[in-house]
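Q: Sequence in, structure out?
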Amino acid sequence: MIVSFNNEIKQQYVQLRKKYQLKLVDAVIAATAIALNLPLITSNKQFRTIRELQLLHYDK
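A: Exactly. Output:
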């Protein structure tokens, strides 16, 4: 899926960077999932701290 970086994603991105001190790329990934109301599947444990995110964690 290809998604344009729209205003909703941008707003989520700014809020997440400030609230959770995320790396740029992690904030973009999380903001996109939140804005599109999609779960994020990852093994990255840092995403567990983001309460707004629907997270599906898997172990490698």
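The chain has two helices and two strands.
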